[in-house]
Amino acid sequence: MKNYSTQMEAAKKGIITPEMQTVSEKEYVPAEKIRELVALGQIAIPANVNHRSLSAEGIGKGLRTKINVNLGISGDCKNYDVEMEKVKLSLKFGAEAIMDLSNYGKTNTFRRQLIDMSPAMIGTVPMYDAIGYLEKDLLEITAEDFLKVVRAHAEEGVDFMTIHAGINRRAVEAFKRDKREMNIVSRGGSLLFAWMEMTGNENPFYEYFDDVLGILREYDVTISLGDALRPGCIDDSSDGGQIAELIELGALTERAWAKDVQVMIEGPGHMAMNEIAANMQMEKSICHGAPFYVLGPLVSDIFPGYDHITSAIGGAIAAASGADFLCYVTPAEHLRLPDINDVKEGIIASKIAAHAADIAKNVPHARDRDNEMAKARHKVDWEEMFRIAVDPDKARTYFESTPPSDRHTCSMCGKMCAVRTTNMILEGKKVEFCTEK
Predict the structure, then answer these.
(1) In this structure, what CATH number is given to the domain that contains residue 284?
(2) How far apart are CA 121 and CA 419, in angstroms?
(3) Angle (deg, nearest 10), helices 340-360 and 80-92
């Protein structure tokens, strides 16, 4: 019989859980090392006791960079069948986490279906769901009401929850003092800020943080400490509000660990490339090495329709500099709810960023598939290249759209293919373009 409530409690007791063993096998890291880092809070394994279909993943020090896919309905787009197609696509391309950010009506039916079928970690932001779940307007919601939504999500089987507990009165004072171009761009953060200002009360998630932790501990839900004051444009990055909130998150991290609740820290946002590495190091220092979960960062503000690219650039730098978990961004960011094609583009861009960072960080076996691709390209073995590719369908479609006359080449270089030429010379053959038919 289990004699622990959470992964962190087990790790502190010297117990290697089945989830730790799964992570060990996936990551090529000894199980005892995984246990040690979970005990220290440097690896989190989000694994709600009620998420039966979960294939556990570790997030943190020395592990592969994981990616998250956001989806869910809004008041303008209410089709849950479309959202389930996005779920299936996310699983196909290997997203390790899916966040249901639905913010309209009763969302629990979809969320339960998602938890029942998904081997990926499931995350939510209870603040988004509060108005629809409680059927109350913002000003009518009490602190106790907010905790009811947290408990409901935990009971359903959510593995991690974004809780914006760091935007307390001290952080708000810093935000107001340091004027911003974009003010607050976090949806949950803006709702809490509005509630605090309208009621005159402290942030309920901060004031009743121990109660929140009690709920999360009961179901082994990882708390993802939300960045309500993340920068929403590059001009606002690294300002007083962002740093003030981060300091609060560092203190909350230690309080959560004392209760054996696993922690992730959420981070920027929009940020110029030259600031990213320093921000990653600052988070690790202030938040005691807790896993860092970043949205982007987006390195420019002027490419709407291409923000999956601005995000992938920032995400690669962030992950190579210490971030552990990337939240994808789609081409639809800042414009509309993403459709299925946007979701695919966002997943692939985020996967590129995560994988490139893993190669840079020498994560165990990160280069293996790249090395396989190099061998297939050396042999000009197209079928093998398609097999190895992350998106084989797209690769094949591109190749076949303008087929070469000789399948030992592609239509760009034809018989002047550098690989073909070099292979022929090294095999002792003569290369004669004018006489070849």
Answers:
(1) 3.20.20.540
(2) 42
(3) 30
